[in-house]
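ok so for the tutorial part 2 we go from a plain amino acid sequence to predicted structure tokens. step 1 is just haveing the sequence, like this:
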Amino acid sequence: MTVLVDSAIWPWRGENWAHLVSDKTYEELHEFAETLGLRRMSFQGDHYDINSQLRETAIQNGAQPVDGRELVARLKSAGLRLPPSQRPGRWEELDAKRPKVFDEVINEIETDWDLVHTQMYKRSTELALVLECSGGIKLEDANKFPEIETRITNHNCRLELLTSVFD
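step 2 — the prediction. this is what the tokens look like for a chain of 167 residues:
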């Protein structure tokens, strides 16, 4: 396990926040973040921001607590640190029509479509479609769509679809 977390010293919205990183691969980091229930959209290009309570859970699940300097040094040593100019920035909600790139995945989703709330977002070179349904969402084979990253969270009630492929 090479997932690292620094101290929760960064104040924002009335809480203190920490950084969760991997000094091995982004894939490892995403898998670990998913076990914590983090939205894939909360990935900041080379880290996830987590509050102090979630930091404790991350440590209980195997994340190694380190100080901020060691975290950055190990991230740089692994070649995974992005300069601020290359980080993806904020997500902006879009009112645009859903791009065709998501159509095949949508056709494979099992849910009560009358209860689904859909939002679309864009940041930098990424596009995300978020579907939420209190009745649950099921997608049998997410690996069937290699150009789309999928993550189901919130007790199978939220599905995030992310892509860098635009049509």
